[in-house]
């Protein structure tokens, strides 16, 4: 019931936003931006990247603590391979674009690498060595680094200077929406799966441990 109400509210708010943006003199997000194919593609890609990035950052440390017995500090340190590979890939991709002028292959390659990283992370098992997990996270960081700055560069090169700021901000706005969706979706799946596993694996005797025993006459 509540989910239906929330979804209906979101749809109505989106429709109202579009109607207002079409009529206002100085819209927050000019709708003519969506007539540009590059803007649409980079916006969708940025949204998906936000889902993958923040879904991983938000819940992988918790998973590492629960499944591998790492404490809060150790689980944070285990994320270094991803956060280290991300800026390295971003800087290297920027240098390649500056020298060659070619960038179309980078979002495609970055998206493929992110997909591979997500597939690898889906195979995580508590019996795995930690270095394998770090390698998977480094692959994720490599894919994210190839995508993030190049997508912004494509947007900025698709519009005149007078619209670059608006186009960049709009693209970042949808990336933040992706981050929110990623955190919400992954969090919901995490909590749901955790609940099912607890019910499945905990001894049945513990289910009524907190209840007072029935009195006998």
From TrEMBL:
Major facilitator superfamily (MFS) profile domain sequence ranges: 1-217
Statement: the UniProt record of this protein carries the keyword Transmembrane helix: yes
Ranges annotated as spanning the membrane: 6-25, 37-57, 77-98, 105-124, 130-155
Compartments where located: Cell membrane
Alphabetized UniProt keyword annotations: Membrane, Transmembrane, Transmembrane helix
Topology in the lipid bilayer: Multi-pass membrane protein
Major subcellular site: membrane
GO terms for cellular component: plasma membrane
InterPro entries registered for this protein in UniProt: MFS (IPR011701), MFS_dom (IPR020846), MFS_trans_sf (IPR036259)
GO MF annotations, alphabetized: transmembrane transporter activity
Family matches, as PANTHER family: COMD, MAJOR FACILITATOR SUPERFAMILY
Name this protein carries in UniProt: Major Facilitator Superfamily protein
Species of the source: Arthrobacter subterraneus
């Amino acid at each position: 019931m509540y989910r239906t109400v929330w979804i209906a509210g979101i749809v109505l708010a989106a429709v109202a936003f579009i109607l207002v943006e079409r009529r206002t003199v100085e819209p927050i997000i000019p709708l003519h931006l969506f007539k540009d194919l590059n803007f649409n593609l980079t916006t969708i890609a940025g949204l998906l990247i936000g889902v993958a990035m923040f879904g991983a950052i938000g819940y992988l440390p918790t998973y590492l603590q629960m499944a591998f017995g790492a404490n809060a500090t150790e689980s944070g340190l285990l994320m270094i391979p991803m956060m280290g590979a991300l800026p390295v890939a971003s800087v290297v991709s920027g240098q390649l674009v500056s020298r060659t002028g070619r960038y179309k292959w980078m979002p495609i390659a970055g998206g493929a690498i992110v997909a591979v990283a997500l597939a690898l992370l889906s195979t995580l098992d508590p019996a795995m060595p930690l270095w394998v997990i770090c390698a998977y996270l480094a692959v994720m960081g490599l894919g994210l680094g190839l995508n993030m700055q190049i997508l912004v560069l494509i947007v900025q090169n698709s519009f005149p200077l007078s619209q670059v700021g608006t186009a960049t901000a709009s693209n970042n706005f949808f990336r933040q929406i992706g981050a929110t969706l990623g955190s919400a979706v992954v969090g919901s799946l995490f909590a749901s799966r955790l609940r099912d596993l607890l019910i499945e694996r905990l001894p049945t005797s513990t289910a009524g441990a907190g209840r007072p025993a029935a009195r006998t006459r």
